[in-house]
Design a protein that fits this description.
7 helices; three-stranded antiparallel sheet; single chain; binds adenosine-5'-diphosphate; binds magnesium ion; 243 residues; 9 strands; Aminoglycoside 3'-phosphotransferase, Chain: A, domain 2; 14% strand; Phosphorylase Kinase, domain 1; alpha+beta; four-stranded antiparallel sheet
């Protein structure tokens, strides 16, 4: 999806397909209801479905989770703990799937069946933010990539796979930061999954998550190749062997 995001003072203006923005706004309202201080989300202020514009509050002082590494150069434990909390946030989102389903109401085209949840859909590095002043986690953009079907509902591992592909894939940023911290990326994935398990009481096996992460990356490379910033290298898969 080609979306444009513009900051206007305290407000963020996002352009995109109207129906997607309506769902995004409703999901954000749902998240706000159960976040309970574990994380924060932007508050949708207005959606013009026809024009394809949403206005929402701006999360100020937040940076993408990877950029937060800069502020913790000498504190690998702090970074691991950040990822553990990030796992907890995703588990909270999945655990309150019923609330999100209610907010989505008629906008939800697929019923939520046993073992499935309402997914965030794009739970990766650029949509998990951290406030530098106090490490509060911010979650934005709960919208799946355009080539993903079904849109909103699936097994929890789908969201886990996305963050896994961010943590283990050949992304310059994570490799650079993790190397500078002398922090194995595997350790960050462990922290993320531990945090998820602590909040949810369950987590798929390590092998299943790594496999799903690879599959996610493959889908992104093949079907998302026309997106603005595809992961360039077809060798992206070697990573799993170097864990
Ligand atoms: N409410 C917000 N507050 C602060 N920054 C935001 C907000 N919404 C978006 N951003 C910034 O703009 C970027 C793109 O917005 P996003 O909603 O994720 O759109 P896209 O679908 O293009 O990923 C985000 O990665 C984030 O840096
Ligand atoms: Mg985004």
């Amino acid at each position: 999806m080609i979306v444009r995001v513009r900051v206007e003072g305290d407000v963020v203006v996002k352009h995109g397909p109207g129906a997607e923005l309506v769902r995004e706004a409703r999901k954000l309202r749902a998240y706000e209801e159960f976040a309970g201080g574990l994380f924060v989300v932007p508050r949708p202020l207005a959606v013009d479905e026809e024009a394809g514009v949403m206005r929402m509050s701006r999360l100020e002082g937040f940076v993408p989770v990877v950029a937060a590494f800069d502020a913790s150069k000498d504190a690998p434990r702090a970074v691991a703990s950040l990822f553990s909390r990030t796992g907890g946030v995703l588990a909270r989102i999945h655990g309150h799937s019923e609330v999100t389903r209610r907010w989505l109401a008629d906008a939800l085209t697929t019923p939520v069946t046993a073992g499935h949840v309402v997914l965030h859909g794009d739970f990766g590095f650029s949509n998990v933010l951290v406030r530098l002043s106090d490490s509060t986690i911010g979650v934005i953009d709960p919208t799946p990539a355009p080539y993903v079907e079904p849109r909103d509902v699936g097994p929890p591992i789908r969201d886990l796979a996305h963050m896994t592909s961010c943590l283990l894939g050949r992304r310059g940023s994570i490799i650079r930061y993790a190397t500078a911290l002398r922090l194995p990326r595997r350790r960050l994935l462990e922290a993320f999954l531990d945090g998820y398990a602590a909040e949810s009481g369950s987590v798929p096996s390590w092998d299943a998550v790594v496999e799903a992460g690879q599959e996610h990356l493959r889908t992104y490379l093949v079907r998302g190749a026309d997106l603005p910033r595809p992961i360039a290298s077809a060798t992206a898969f070697v990573w799993a062997k170097t864990l």
